[in-house]
Design goal:
The protein has about 300 residues and is α+β, with helices and mostly antiparallel strands. It is built from ten helices and twelve strands. A hairpin with a 5-residue loop joins strand 1 and strand 2 (about 20-25). The longest helix is centred in the N-terminal third of the chain and has 18 residues, at about 35-50.
């Protein structure tokens, strides 16, 4: 039913049940093996939630150097296993290979109602754009790699990256939303542009309403960005118009690649009040960051 053009593949089993399958893995973004494993697992499961599915089974994918101490490998796998357990997911084996740099992630499998798939398309003019995690993980983890990050900023980033999108996905399904994606390597604007193009609409973003990790602006002003941020800017900037009041470091934050980022959801205006109230009941953070309009491209207001 769904393949290359969305967050995960979906195969229909019956009228009311389908299998949703995805995979993701990456090199370490933090120094602590357990947190790295947990973040990688949360990130791998995120595409299932973004599609409106519920994961139930996973396989480990790991590339580990020969010289890596076994206690570090064990901690990476333990982090992944405990995060999967929190999600109600069984890790039933997997596969490892040797490599010079550690890499870890999951193949994730879930169930989904094929009549209620959340896809990148489906946005309609008037829909509110809702984000479920703050931005800035890329600049913060890059600052860590450059030994310029403050401890409290790293702890905050790890806390958010380790957080499952389980409740956010539940909320989206409960309100029968039809359009959404998760914010990862292509950045906030990159993934937002995918939604806009798939839905044949334009997006209006209010910069002042976007949530950021506490240290993100500080690192951006120092020019601390991962290489992927510049790749994203080069690829997507032609379709983005920024308010002249938004300076370049602030613009670059919207091209910052995220790891295990939140969901970006389109919420019909008639559902928004109830959606916000239910989010509070579920202790799910949400920010209304813009709206969908007719047209093409993305406009970012100050």
């Amino acid at each position: 039913m769904v393949g290359l053009d969305d967050d995960a593949a979906v195969w229909r089993l019956s009228e009311d049940k389908a299998i949703v399958v995805t995979t993701d893995f990456f090199t370490p973004v933090v120094d602590t093996p357990y947190e790295y494993g947990a973040i990688a697992a949360a990130n791998s499961l995120s595409d299932i939630y973004a599609m409106g599915g519920v994961p139930f089974l996973a396989l480990n994918i790991a590339a580990l150097p020969d010289q890596l101490p076994s206690e570090i490998s064990s901690e990476i796998l333990r982090g992944g296993a405990e995060k999967a357990r929190e999600a109600g997911v069984i890790i039933a084996g997997g596969h490892t290979v040797k490599d010079k740099e550690p890499k870890y992630g999951l193949v994730a499998i879930g169930f989904i109602d094929p009549r209620k798939i959340i896809s990148k398309g489906g946005l309609k003019a008037g829909d509110a754009l809702v984000l479920t995690k703050p931005l800035g993980a890329g600049v913060t983890t890059t600052a860590l790699k450059q030994e310029k990050a403050r401890d409290e900023d790293i702890k905050e980033a790890i806390t958010w990256m380790m957080r499952l999108n389980k409740t956010a996905g539940q909320l989206a399904t409960e309100f029968d939303l039809r359009s959404g994606t998760d914010i990862t390597g292509f950045s906030f604007l990159g993934h937002a542009m995918e939604m806009a193009n798939a839905s044949n609409v334009s997006l209006n973003i209010e910069y002042s309403k976007l949530p950021f990790l506490n240290g993100a602006r500080h690192y951006a002003e120092q020019g601390i960005f991962p290489g992927g941020a510049f790749d994203n800017k080069n690829h997507f900037e032609a379709s983005v118009t920024f308010d002249e009041k938004i300076e370049e470091p602030a613009q670059m934050l919207l091209f910052d690649p995220q790891t295990s980022g939140g969901l970006l959801l389109g919420v019909p205006p008639e559902k928004l009040d109830a959606f916000q109230k239910r989010a509070i009941e579920l202790d799910q953070s949400i920010w209304v960051v813009g709206e969908v309009r007719a047209g093409k491209g993305i406009e970012v207001q100050a």
